[in-house]
């Protein structure tokens, strides 16, 4: 429907719009993040698929954000992954009586350059496929959780306004507080689902306790946790606290080797950081005993762009044969 003629650099038509339906597409996809573990692997995959097909077909949107409405049909969160920076998924449904959800789309609130000091520290507690998929879990929650209905109607709209304002104003105190409160309530709806869904585990909860102890010791919100449909923690902080927070996590969740953190130079910095004894005294009271193996890997990253076109050297498919050339490391 959105496809157009594909033309070369000289303006010559290579593929006519009406011919696309007769052609087949070879797709090769892989994740650099654990799959189906609550780290948005499906969002990344479907966003990349839609972006790639849109580029191939020279697709033209009929309204802004139309491609995001296509991406969310594969994975809800994929709609947000088509843009970089801070992105909101608008609920839509103004014409739901006609079963028209075309206005349920993603909107970029700010680009990845807006808040350059913001950092994310991701603790991979489990890289295994979760017991309950995000889609199945949400379907069950919609059918059985009264708390979810209240949350969608009365809580989420207000929090969306709060967190968008906080992000635009670079107000980490509010951003962190709303982020943690919303994560907690999301998992409360999972418990309110019948039968209940348990995405977090004891390691996840220990991270939560340490983050709150850290913030209490600092006298301000320096770190904020959020957990999606899985046990893995995403911690937000500012660049000036990133080394301290990461060193704290490394203290309680020690590493196996030099590949424990995705950024080797950052790992050297946090390994050499001496933590304040009073901080450790405060976080020790959470009951966490340092133990290797509870966290499989740590990613240190920041807000980035949407889907990127890679060079042929990085491609999964050989451009001369059309065959898959990717092999897992």
Automatic annotation (TrEMBL):
Pfam families with a match to the protein in the record: MDD_C, MVD-like_N
GO CC annotations on file: chloroplast; cytosol
InterPro entries, A to Z: GHMP_kinase_C_sf (IPR036554), Mev_decarb (IPR005935), Mev_diP_decarb (IPR029765), MVD-like_N (IPR053859), Mvd1_C (IPR041431), Ribosomal_Su5_D2-typ_SF (IPR020568), Ribsml_uS5_D2-typ_fold_subgr (IPR014721)
Sequence ranges assigned to domain Mvd1 C-terminal in this UniProt record: 120-309
GO terms of molecular function: ATP binding; diphosphomevalonate decarboxylase activity
Localisation: Plastid, Chloroplast
A GO biological process held by the record: isopentenyl diphosphate biosynthetic process, mevalonate pathway
Tagged with keyword Lipid metabolism: yes
Domain Diphosphomevalonate decarboxylase-like N-terminal: 16-96
Its EC number(s): 4.1.1.33
Enzyme superclass (EC): lyase
Keyword field: ATP-binding, Lipid biosynthesis, Lipid metabolism, Lyase, Nucleotide-binding, Steroid biosynthesis, Steroid metabolism, Sterol biosynthesis, Sterol metabolism
NCBIfam families named among the record's database cross-references: mevDPdecarb (TIGR01240)
PANTHER family xref list: DIPHOSPHOMEVALONATE DECARBOXYLASE
UniProt record similarity statement: Belongs to the diphosphomevalonate decarboxylase family.
Record's protein name: diphosphomevalonate decarboxylase
């Amino acid at each position: 429907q959105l496809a157009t003629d594909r033309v070369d650099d000289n303006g010559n038509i290579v593929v006519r719009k009406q011919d696309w339906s007769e052609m087949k597409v070879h797709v090769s996809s892989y994740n650099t993040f654990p799959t189906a573990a609550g780290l948005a692997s499906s969002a990344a995959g479907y966003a990349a698929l839609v972006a790639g097909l849109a580029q191939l077909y020279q697709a033209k949107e009929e309204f802004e954000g139309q491609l995001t409405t296509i991406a969310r049909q594969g994975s809800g969160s994929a709609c947000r992954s088509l843009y970089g920076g801070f992105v909101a998924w608008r609920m839509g449904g103004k014409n739901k009586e006609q079963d028209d959800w075309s206005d349920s789309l993603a909107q970029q609130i700010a680009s990845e350059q807006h808040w350059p000091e913001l950092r994310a520290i991701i603790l991979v507690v489990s890289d295994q496929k979760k017991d309950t998929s995000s889609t199945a879990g949400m379907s069950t929650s919609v059918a059985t959780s009264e708390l979810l209905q209240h949350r969608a109607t009365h809580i989420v709209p207000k929090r969306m306004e709060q967190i968008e304002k906080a992000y635009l104003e670079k107000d980490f105190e509010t951003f962190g507080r709303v982020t943690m409160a919303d994560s907690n309530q999301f998992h409360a709806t999972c418990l309110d689902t019948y039968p209940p869904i348990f995405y977090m585990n004891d390691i996840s909860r220990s991270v939560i306790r340490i983050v709150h102890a850290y913030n209490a010791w600092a006298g301000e919100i320096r770190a904020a946790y959020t957990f999606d449909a899985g046990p893995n923690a995403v911690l937000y902080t500012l660049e000036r606290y990133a080394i301290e927070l990461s060193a704290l996590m490394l203290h309680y969740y020690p590493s196996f080797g030099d590949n424990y953190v995705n950024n080797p130079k950052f790992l050297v910095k946090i390994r050499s950081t001496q933590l304040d004894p009073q901080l450790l005294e405060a976080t020790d009271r959470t009951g966490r005993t340092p133990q290797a193996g509870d966290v499989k890997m740590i990613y240190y990253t920041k807000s980035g762009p949407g889907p990127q076109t890679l060079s042929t050297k990085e491609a999964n498919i050989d451009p001369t044969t059309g065959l898959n050339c990717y092999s897992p490391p």
